[in-house]
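Reviewer comment 2.1 asked that we show a complete input and output for one of the modelled complexes. We chose the zinc ion case, as it is the one discussed in the main text.
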Amino acid sequence: MRVFVASIATETNTFSPVYTDLSDFRETFYHPPGTHPDQPSLCSAPFIACRDLVPGAGGTLIEGTAAWAEPAGLVNQQAWETLRDEVLDQVTAALPLDAVVLGLHGAMVARGCDDCEGELLERIRAIVGPETVIGASYDPHSHFSERRRRNADISITFKEFPHVDTMERACDLVRLTVAAVRGEVRPVTSVFDCRMIDVMPTTAEPMRAYVDRIVERERAPGILSISVVHGFMAGDVPDMGAKIIVVTDDAPTRGNDLARELGMELFGLRGSTRMTVLDPEAALDQVDETAGHEPVVIADIWDNPGGGVAGDSTVLLRRLLARGIDRAAVGLIWDPVAVRLCFAAGEGTRINLRFGGKSGPDCGDPVDGEVEVVRLVPDAIQRFNNTWARAGDIAAIRIGGVDVLLATIRLQIYSTDLFEAAGVDMRDRRVVVVKSTNHFRRAFEPIASKILYVDSGAPYPSDPRKTAYRKLSRALWPIVEHPHGCA
Ligand SMILES: [Zn+2]
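Response of the prediction step:
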């Protein structure tokens, strides 16, 4: 059995002014064949699952390229075609193949290509032929097209948001792919279009119980896999929106029925899955009211680089400074120029610095002031569950009563690693602001007195009713009230 694995992944916010080039992949996560590290990244977990499972199944693993760029705006056409052709050449060189396993994100959009993953799968199918088993894993914040269904045998998304189950899903994918090569199962994929888009964290009800029910339904004989595509509302593409994927063992009618049942159940949860979101002043009022030594952790959810925005909004920081809140910490604010100036000045210096607020008018003005350069951390690393991410050079500065982590690389806060590396002691903080939507949660829960989600009006297009979609091809809730027909 000859199995090829590769990964090309990013999440494209088509409304973001921060465009994506090959250098963004090379700087963030780029590993040519044979150089993928032992730890998985978010979308390259199938590499590790293949290394664990393929040799034991008597197979030979051929590794291709793994590339990931932090979510941002449109990928330029040359960058996409270079990565695509690199992997297609590797597939051709590896023939004959029994299986191709791909770690994808599913929301990658390039100039001139609205469905990068669909195009990649279609071209790989053309190279390997109809008999080779193709399996792909996706982030649930993705788009699922008919082109992808047609050209892959198995499609699986992470079930959890935060995505703490990347390795489990990668193992599911590789086990199913191997079973299909051996002829033990004949995977057939059913898809239901839920005609909705929302934010659906699985750490809270009603999504927690919904995902648990799906796991239960997956145990039924003949059901190989069930996935929920949450959709990604910052991607203006024809297929944006939530979908259910059911992979059965050659039982398409049953798969279609189950996908519809689960899809309409999800549609019934529309509008009830988002976290409660406060405005900045209401959140900071709660900081004022909270005594004790554990910090209030505030997620600045719509300035999360994980959603493709710049991550340099100063709106919340400015409110902290204006209210004179001390023992505060904020991370990360993206400003490579400011980081470079801090590194040049050195630890312990006091300098006049302008930082943040440069990517657009929604992000607040840059902050100007005399700051203390508290700590410089070259080549920082941040863990997320059992994956890790390069965080580049970090400069910790102090302005007023606030420690601010400035970053060279756009990256959301996944864990407390970067604050700790910068010498910020969480135990004596009143408030810690993180630029993340929900992935921070598991790491910060143990140290937080409470966790608040804040909408500081920053640039992510968080209300689909107000977003000017031009390519979206179907009626979706909440843009229309009854996309499935009359109530
Ligand atoms: Zn995601």
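The mean pLDDT is 95. We note this here for comparison with the apo prediction described in Section 3.2.
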